[in-house]
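ingest -> fold -> write
write: protein_1
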Amino acid sequence: MFSFVGSITPSMLNMTALKISLEKGKLAANKYAFGVSLMIIPQVIIAVILTKYIAQTPTILETIEKAGIVVFIALSYYFYNESKKGKIKVDAVKTKSINPLLTGISLSVLNMFGIPFFSGTIITLDVFNLFSFDFVSVFFFILGSVLGTFYILFLYGKFAKIIQQKTGKLTKDINLILSIITGLVAVFTVVKLFI
């Protein structure tokens, strides 16, 4: 779910799925989505390892929780500002002669936000005692992350023409919702630190 929500907003990966779908068709967009999702597996594993180390060091975790408040406030502000903007451009990447699967793998590897996003998600879940570092929990977190990422990219590919026509309103609404969600997470984190 977090992976799905985290990937909803227009980004390089999503806009590339949209562009591939418009230029090469839905099958190519699905191959691209599979390539991106494939690279989510090592990213989540690295995030789990890093987060487990951080969670075993309480002082680091406290510092990260406090920094997380600032990050979530900044994200809330960012998404709020993005909600005021107009349409987004779909010219993210040239896709004419590129293999969609390799494009997905390459762009996912280059995506610098994957590991910090999953670490942040794990830390947030751990703060609210909703995550455990046992094998079953980690397996389902990885599976959910892969499926969530694939599904949102699949939807971008499937509804490419509709998204292209309505990106202004869609982007505005999604960014406003994400602004509210990240703001609430910041508030809950502050409350948890003082209770």
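write: protein_2
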Amino acid sequence: MALSRVCWVRAALWGSAVPPGPYVTRRLQFVRSGLAWGAPRYLFPRQLLIQHFWTPKQQIDFLDIYHKLRNQSHPEILSYLERVIPHISDAGLQWHMTELCTKMQCGTHPLKQDILALRECFSAHPLGMNQLHALQMRALSRAMLLTPYLPSVLLRHRLKTHTTVIHQLDQALAKLGIGQLTAREVKSACYLRGLNSTHIAEERCRTWLGEWLQISCSLKEAELSLLLHSVVLLSINYTGTRR
């Protein structure tokens, strides 16, 4: 059981999005040994070339390029959140969402309680996983470094599956403890979850990952749209990300 949990955690750091199954331990051990620095699984062939033929600086430059592509979706996602505020039925939740969007537009990194206060908004209309608009799903796919060029039904299914697996891996990682991870693994875990950790100190990465795990482990399955949006909400204004 302990070995299986560690394999799940290690896979979380190296970008595997393989659903649970009877072969999961063997599969995740293979992924753990095959991937470099922590780019997601869908970059696997190119990442192998980078590992063996690129210098460390070239590897960092490559990850920066991909993160710039990811960042292009952030204004679109925040704009969508602002547009749905009038469609939130609860006045208190409207106020919380308005405050969060205003803080983020001003460059403030949101607190854990700021995000969790909105969990109800992300469990049903208009921001629940089953109610997301196609444009928002495409933007979220880009933020997750997934191709957005799929029909809406496939985008929704893949985002839901991808987020569910990360949620399960987060629970395993929380049990193992961030203190058990190497500096390289911590940075990899942060990158997979939306933070460009290449230029952030290890301790800052550990702090950020701790915030992510506190949010993730507080969420139920019906609220995982909030975890998906946290790829943007938690990373966009984090100290050290602006160069």
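write: annotation protein_2
The chain has one domain: 58-233.
Residues 152 and 235 are 26 Å apart (CA to CA).
pipeline exit 0
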